[in-house]
Amino acid sequence: MAVMPVRKIGDPVLRSKAQPVKEINTKTENLVENLKSTLVELEGLGLAANQIGVLQRVFVIKRNNGEMLEFINPEILQKEGNKIDREGCLSVPEREGPVPRAEKVKLRYQTLTDEEVEAVFSDLEARVIQHELDHLDGVLFVDKVIDLPTASY
Ligand code: ZN
Fold this sequence. Notes:
Strand content: 25-35%
CATH superfamily: Peptide deformylase
Structural class: alpha+beta
Oligomer: single chain
Distance between the termini: 56 Å
Largest sheet: 5 strands, antiparallel
CATH topology: Peptide Deformylase
Radius of gyration: 15 Å
Number of domains: 1
Number of helices: 2
CATH architecture: Alpha-Beta Complex
Helix content: 10-25%
Bound molecules: zinc ion
Number of strands: 7
């Protein structure tokens, strides 16, 4: 397990599309462990493989209860609702902004034990998952920040 340096905006790896994991093996285990230890160290909510320079479709999140969860080859099956909330990113220091996201997502993914899981996530966890999934497609939250209409008097 190692804490890895997090790539910052401007690094082309953050703009590259990650490839599906073909076989879950010790390399995948190491990747997940590195993602988890880096996320814990930086006190973030989620971290995608691109952010530590690996173009594989893997990310981890920290759940509301503190549990860490890995997502391998994640796919969104269904989205529900829409909510605008402020977002930030470990790869985009000192910036945040309002981003619209679905409030609820149904996801299919694999775990390290090669189980295929279908599960529903909502609220903050759903937001973090959509943010991390974007990373795997080379998309950053700054691409999706909207300008809130200013009140006119
Ligand atoms: Zn991010």
